[in-house]
Structures are given as structure tokens and as C-alpha cells.
Amino acid sequence: MADDDIFSVRPEIAASAHADAARYEEMYNASVADPEAFWAEHGKRLDWIKPYTKVKNTSYDYHNVSIKWFEDGTLNVCANCVDRHLKDRAHQTAIIWESDDPGVSQHITYQELYEQVSKFGNVLHSLGVKKGDRVILYLPMIPAAAYAMLACARIGAIHSIVFAGFSPDALADRINDCGAKLVVTADEAPRGGRATPLKANVDKALARCGSDVRCLVVRRTGGAVPMTEGRDVWYHDEVERVSDHCAPVEMSAEDPLFILYTSGSTGKPKGVLHTSGGYLLYASMTHQYVFDYQEGDIYWCTADVGWVTGHSYIVYGPLANGATTLMFEGVPTYPDAGRFWEVCAKHKVNIFYTAPTAIRALMGQGEEFVAKHDLSSLRILGSVGEPINPEAWRWYHRVVGRENCPIVDTWWQTETGGILITPLPGAIALKPGSATRPFFGVQPCVLNDRGEEITETACEGVLAIKDSWPGQMRTVYGDHDRFVSTYFEMFKGYYFSGDGCRRDKDGYYWITGRVDDVINVSGHRMGTAEVESALVAHPKVSEAAVVGFPHDIKGQGIYCYVTLMSGEEPSDELRTELRNWVRKEIGPIASPDVIQWAPGLPKTRSGKIMRRILRKIAENDFGALGDTSTLADPSVVDNLIENRAVK
Ligand code: WT7
User: Fold this and answer.
1) Positions modified as N6-acetyllysine (predicted)?
2) Ligand 1 in contact with 387 (CB < 6 A)?
3) Which residue from 351, 326, 310 is spatially nearest to 148, judged by alpha carbons?
4) What does DSSP say about strands 495-503 and 256-262: parallel, antiparallel, or unpaired?
5) Does the ipTM exceed 0.95?
6) What is the spatial distance between Cα 66 and Cα 475, in angstroms, rounded to a whole number?
């Protein structure tokens, strides 16, 4: 039984870890017994301009949800990530940049980071960006992405990163939703040997935005891009004109740091808002303990800064800790399936953090790609983004970790700011596929359908959190009601995660996946409603229903049932056209895996689509369709089964 499949803590890891088993218990118990005292103490890991006297002021009361941490303290996030390290580690590498091209990499010291970020801050100033203004970053994984984030933090502007794989339409929606003043982009983004035309995408997006939005362009490839006079400027021109001193602005702990858009079960993506003090404290503390970061370690998180993982565990957490963080521009399979391991060997990486989808894809390529490279520097491995299946866990552990690196399976969300459930490598025995135990200050619980907390240790239900932690999101930008209704309405008094979970007899948590209409495709979160609305925007589509289905590599794939307008004929060409249409509307990550023509969709008599049935058909699980008697037209189901699209 998986619950009894245990990998005990390695003594050599425990011996030098920030927390061994006893210390974990002691700190965890203290953190929940007296959160005020615990966080008052750990808040000191940051440099404050004006120290806080208030620590926690949070309410999960449905009528009055409000989350504030360290509210009377002031600080600057950038100064905490850069300036304060100059005294002791000016010449230490802050960022190792590994380009898409395996021949090109760069080491950036804390001193250089300080100079680059200061200049970037002054360029933002010179374009009129002030404290509280929103700035969209639409960039490749290049050092300038980190400079831009930190520069915003330095001058008090709020950044919102849009993943470079999103389409011009998706970009325009985000620019408009947050009322950004400026978009920072690059000419092109090279990835896997191909270039995405970022600036051209911005041009298309800006055609849908107010005329006052400006564009700052960083040169990456040197590819020719048209510039619009009066609106667009080159970074390399502007930087010539600015000084290299830029004072960090004093910010309240509760001033916004960034907005990051993420998909929900309904409507358009929502702008998750994180603030300064609590977020940075939580990102930095989790980075230190979860990865057992030790002085001198080379740490690599393979995520993109377009996702929250890149915010908390490439930039803010590691840099707040004075760490050396590796930033990778490329993909795992270019120039070949050994790229991750080549980079680990080249830069002597000690801590490696990636996603199950990457592990599964590389597993399929064979062990030779790993064996070729010297991975003896690796000490800790991490996983994030979706449940890791035990088979992939074992491969990661045996082949990549040579059976001596603990794997930290970290469960968290864009909303949580940092890791909530995870093993600590020196403290908690591992079970393949389980995120194990809560981090300090985190009180998970399992609720039944009626919203009651299940008290038995071993149980299954939905995962909720009982009280706030400093890294929690504060609101949905511009829509606090949506924040309250999404996370606090269904289960009153709790933060509802949207995930299902099981707790085993040892109190270990096993995340079973989303319980809402959100799917997880290669670790990227997608609302089925978004894909549906993209499909029905096509002139030949009358109706669409989208569900997830199990996919060997992506975790979940996108399965679309499409009803055409009367008179339209299904064809393979139309299938391709619709697939391209969705890619254009949202971006390549939303590319449908399966499109099945559906003359009708299973609906209740009141017209509600029964997704449960569509999910079962997509999963090839016809025996368990459940009750179909409430359908307006039960024969619809037979038709869908008969014509189930072959994958
Ligand atoms: C959703 C959050 C956390 C940063 C990357 C994704 C799923 C995430 C795990 C894990 C099982 C996981 C959940 C969660 N998820 N990590 N270790 N085990 N599921 O952030 O895009 O906000 O997605 O990803 O379903 O709710 P996100």
C-alpha cells in the first residue's frame, strides 16, 4: 500500500539541515500555538525600515474577509533582495543565467545586480512610472526579467508578469484589467531554438488598449521589430540617459508587490494580488527550509517567471536569502533530452526544482540522457505544479537523485504565495506521491461536502486551510467580492483551495487534484470555461464543453466537445482551424488535445451541461456514467460514446 511506502529521512541530510524532525515538531507546534509570537520572531529575517509592532490582523469571516500582516511596518522588497547583501556578498553570484543556446551563460554578482536594477528603476522613472502604477512584464527568461521585477519593487510600482506563451489577446486583457501604464517586453523570445515574436505580439495587444500605454523594449535577439514613435522606446537607448543611483522607496508591508493572473472555474482569469512584507518573508523562509538552502549552494528552479513559482522561487525567495539562483531560458528537450542534466553538471547545481510533467517527458526518453552527465553535486530535488505519480517520483529519485537526494513534493498555489504542504528534507520521511505535512504556520484540514471538518486522521474530502499565513493573497485586483466568493463562500470560515485531498493514517496529505472546473495541463492551470469561450467565439461553433482527461505526459489534456452551427460540416481541416483558433485566442498552452464533434451535449432539463458525464466519456470510463435519467435527451450520450474521438 502506497501509504506504507516510506523513505526515511537521511541522517546526513538531517545532521546539517535547518530543521530535523525534532526541530520541525517544535517549530510547527509553536507556529500554530501562538502565530503572533512565531511570526513576530521570524519577521526579523527581513530588513525593515520601520519595524512592525502589529503582526497578524486577519479575518476569514465571510462578511468581512481581510488579511493584513505586519501592517505598520515599512520596508523595500528590492533592498531586501539586493542592497542588504552588498556588505557581505557583493562579489558572490546572485544569478546564473543559462541561455536557450547551450553555449551561452552568464554570472551576475550581487553588485552587478544592484547596478542593473538601479538603472532599470531609473528608466522606469524616466518613463513616468510612479509608486502604485502597474507595469506589465512580457519577457523571455533573461536577467532583464529579474531586473525589471526588482526595479518595480524598488520604486514601488506593481508588476504583473504575463507568460511569454500567452497570445496578444490574453495580453491585452491583462493590460486592460490592471490599467497598466507600461509594457516591458523584448524583441523576441528564443526557446528551444525557435523565437516567439514578443514585440509584434505587444503591438497587436496594444491595438486593443488605451493610447497612453507605453512600451519599453529590451533587445534580446536583435531581430528587426517596428517601433511606434512616441509610444515605444528601446531599453538600451533609455539606460544611457539615467544615473546609476536609485533610492529604494519606503513601502508599507501591505503595499502591493505584484499582480499575477490565474485561471479560475468561471469567467476571465483573476488578478491575484500579493503585498510586500508577508509575501517576502514567507517566500524567503520557505525557500530556506523546504530546499534546505545552505550557504554557497547553487539552486535551480526550472519554472518561468511568468508563473508564481518563478516569482517566489527563482527571484524573491532565493534573492532575499542571498542565494545563487539559476535562471534558464530554454526547454528541457533542446538541443536534446539531456539539457537539464547538462546544465546541472555544468553549473554544479545542488538543489533542483522542477515539475512532474518535465520528469514524465524526460523519463520517456531513456536513462542514457541522464547517465551521460555528472550529477554528483545534487543534494535536494523538488517537484511542483501537480500531483507527481509514484512512477515518475521513483524514476526521479533513482535515476536523477541516485537514491540519495530527498524529493520535496511541494503543494501550493498562485494564491498561497509560497509552499504550504511539503516535506522538509531533514525532518519528514517521504512517501512517493504525497506532499506530506504542513509548513510552519499552516493549518490544513479536510472538509466533507457539508463543509464540516473531518476529525479522523485518515479521511478524504476537500482541502481547506483554517487560518492565514503571511504569504496569502490579499484580494483579487479590483474585485474583492470575487476574492471572497471564490475562496471563502462555499466553506464558511476557511480558505478553500479548490483541491481534493486524502489524509492517511500518519497525517500525510495526498492531493488528488482540482474539484472545480479548473484543469492542470503540464502544470499550467486553465479554466475549462476560458477554452469554451474561445471556441464559441469562432463563427462556425454554436456550443462547446471542455473537460480534462488523463494524459501520460501533461498530467491532464484538453478534451473539447464541439457543436457546430447548423449547416456547418465537421472536417479535419475545421478541427485544425479550431485548434489554431484557441491557440490564437489564449496561447499555445491552451491547445486542445482532442476535439470531438458533438451533435448535442448532455444537458439537464434546465439546460445545465452535465460535465460529469463528459468527463467520464473523455476518460473512456463508460461503465460509470452514473444517473443519466435527468437528462433532457439521454440518447445524446450514446451518440457521444459511439463517436468518441480516437486519441
Ligand atoms: C494548483 C495550483 C504552485 C505553483 C505552481 C502551480 C496543483 C500544485 C501541487 C503538488 C499536487 C499540486 C493544485 C493546485 N498543484 N502543486 N505538489 N501536488 N497538486 O500554481 O497555477 O496556481 O496551480 O496546482 O491543483 O491547486 P497554480
Assistant:
1) 608
2) yes
3) 310
4) unpaired
5) yes
6) 9
